[in-house]
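> tool_call: predict_assembly(chains=two)
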Amino acid sequence: MSEKNNNYISQTSEWTFDLLEKFHSEIERIARDFGLDTYPNQIEIISAEQMMDAYSTVGMPVGYHHWSFGKQFLGVEQRYKRGHMGLAYEIVINSNPCIAYLMEENTMMMQALVIAHASYGHNSFFKNNYLFQTWTNADSIIDYLLFAKNYVQKCEQRYGEEEVEALLDSCHALMNYGVDRYKRPRRVSLYDEERRQIEREEYLQSQVNDLWRTLPVDQHKAAHEDERNLWPPEPQENLLYFIEKNAPLLEGWQREIVRIVRKIAQYFYPQRQTQVMNEGWATFWHYTILNKLYDEGLVNDGFMIEFLQAHTNVVTQPGFNSPYYNGINPYALGFSMFRDIRRICESPTDEDKYWFPDIAGSDWLKTLDFAMRNFKDESFIAQYLSPAVIRDLKLFSVVDDDKDNELHISAIHDDSGYRHVREALADQYNLGNREPNIQVYKVNRHGDRSITLRYYAHDRRPLNDDAEDVLKHMSRLWGFTSRIETVAEDGSVSITHECPVER
Amino acid sequence: MSQIIDRRVNGKNKSAVNRQKFIRRYKKHLKKAVEEAVSKRSITDMERGESVNIPSKDIAEPTFGVGRGGRRETIYPGNKEFISGDSVPRPQGGQGQGQGKEASDSGEGEDDFSFALSREEFMDLFFEDLELPNMIKTQLAKDIQFKKIRAGYTSHGSPSNINVIRSMKGAIARRIALGAPYRKELKTLEDELALLEEQDTCNESDIEVLKLKIRGLQQKIKNIPYIDTFDLRYNNRIDQPIPTTQAVMFCLMDVSGSMGEYEKDVAKRFFTLLYMFLTRTYEHIELVFIRHHTVAKEVDEQEFFYSRETGGTVVSSALKLMHEIIQERYSTADWNIYAAQASDGDNWTDDSPVCRNLLLQSILPFLQYYAYIEIIDESSPSGNLWREYSRVAETEQRFAMQKIGGPDQIYPVFRKLFEKQWA
């Protein structure tokens, strides 16, 4: 082919804003052809240092200040400078407009890949997946983060940095337990948030006082309270919410900070539940879009080779006994699953027709779109993990029981094992299984005001060693003694951790 | 609907506050690391960062998680040899083990948390709590230099400072404001006149009256002064004091035969510390090196520390030379003067009282601070110079003296010399 007759957008690896625009408009066109529905994009070019900044605040573009982010930053910086790690090529924020950060060090190819991956892959996932639609407010998150940052700063000025820091430490320890799984949060703007915060403060304080307004009770009554009249009436899984509303000694501003941490936890909750899907979806789309660019003759072979090299790095899945093994790579699993769904739609085998009668031979775009919208990792795997993918990744299941001296291989990639592997893997991605199930069980309202959490031990697994420390934070927030009762599978209950508060 | 933004122009230190918070929180660890570094490093090498390790357990943020034990089923990729029903021995630690998923994703979970302290942070910790005595006082007292800086506008001043644009703006505003009622009236009259003139039946005298009135008004408008003293605005400049930002540091050292390499080395470290502290306080610092045996001589740094001399000791020779140099080159109006003297304590007996008098009468009055260190075993008896200097120290706050046994004592002694309460 002669050099003059090509349509290549660019042939160098250097990027310019002009080329970015061109690539972006082509990518956008292709994405629209495929029917990707996204928030408007805001693509921001940043330097490596800024990327490290973004890293250390879990990608929040504005965030309140806390030492742990500083620690994060120092760790990242140290490892980056020593060459222990490269930085991510992009960070994308679930907001409207959807903000994607591109590093200035990237080559033109990487920038194109990142635009396809983040600005169209992740972005469409954020906009359309039911978990994100239900639990996050892309429109107001930046406002809320700003509110949070200012509020924390104000509190630092009024009540002292140390005080605020200690409170945040405690909240962070319980952050994973600050999530509502059933209730839908309301949409609010920054202005509303500030106004409501003041009302809330006053209202809450009055509520709490009411709850604890107890006349001297006779001790017998207190002792028998447990059996007859548990409070709260039902176990509460959102520990931070429970603390925010009911902790007897917290002041208004402290409740507000608990709430801020809780809200941010809630915002990130869907991301934790859709790692495989989200990354798989974005990877699938950067792969599909960039291949389309190549098919249309818009990029040259060099571009493609560089792209395939980068892409392969991302979707590599080292085997369990490889020194590079670090768990199942969500990019690899998600990408193979979405690719496989497309394959099942386009060229189904007999096996596929038996396993997936509904989707075999259907329109792949519609099927993929449906899968993206309506699942989270757990259900996605349970629904779509095909024997083909299990074979490709050579997945096998290992049972590790401390009653046995040996490990048992319970299933491998064969006919009798597919279902078992699929169930076990889906289970592995169930957040409820990954995180210990801990709930507020009762509060001693008339006696020592202690709070009792219950840990429901699944498969006899104990809590980790951190529990003791987390409980200290719990006691700090609650203001009175806190303890954990472990409920074994046979129903027996024993107090396993206790952190007394002397008064 | 999409936009591409160049954010590189924005600041990069978004995490600076978080970093500071982290450093504040772990100050205890960091200080220990800094002190260790200080005792190990050579002085010339002091002004750089340091890598610090903090044990992971001190820095961990606990969260609830599932510990070892119980039963768990895990999916792994990359099966090569296993079939269902196989039993394999439980691996002891390392990869591929049941806990793999819980290891930190950096793969460095159990290591100490390590990071680099920047030069600034290192030095801050190093100098913390230290403050040169009298420094603040003299800085304030000696602020006699001023710089003119702009500070808006005033309504009075010298003609050379008139700000034309401001003044004219004021004038226009005033003319518009004062003329407004006349112009309003003028307009109504003009409208009236136009109306009358349209009507043919009007009478001439009415028109004449109107025209007269209009002329009167026009004159009034014209009479509003184009510019008035009231409009004048002057550039305002005020005096801003410039703190004296230069200092001179005199290093005095005995180089008689009794000062060996070891003593010189200790002295050098002491001088360096003082120098480093001054560099943080003053923009510009000059160093004057005076070495002496029986006669004193001003030398350069190289010669000061490394050339060898022999002979007796007459300390006053150095003090006299220093006094001369101050008179000649460093007026106290422009310079903050510091002096540090190191010696092994030997002096010609009759000379020590002379030194005391020199110090009290012709040197200390000009100085911010005079530090004397005697490099000697603490157990050895004090020499005559120490005795005479002790008498100086009794009366003079700006004079400090200390005995140093070895290099490991420099840092604590240095701190002691410049502790805050001396201020």
